[in-house]
Amino acid sequence: MNNDLLSMMLSFVAGLILGAIFFGGLWWTIRKGLRSPRPAMLFLSSAVLRMSIVVAGFYFVSNGQWQRLLACMAGFIIARLAVTWLTRGKQKEERHASES
Question: In sequence order, what are the residues at sequence separation of 6 or more whose Cβ sits closer than 8 angstroms to the Cβ of residue 25?
Answer without folding.
Answer: 46, 49, 50
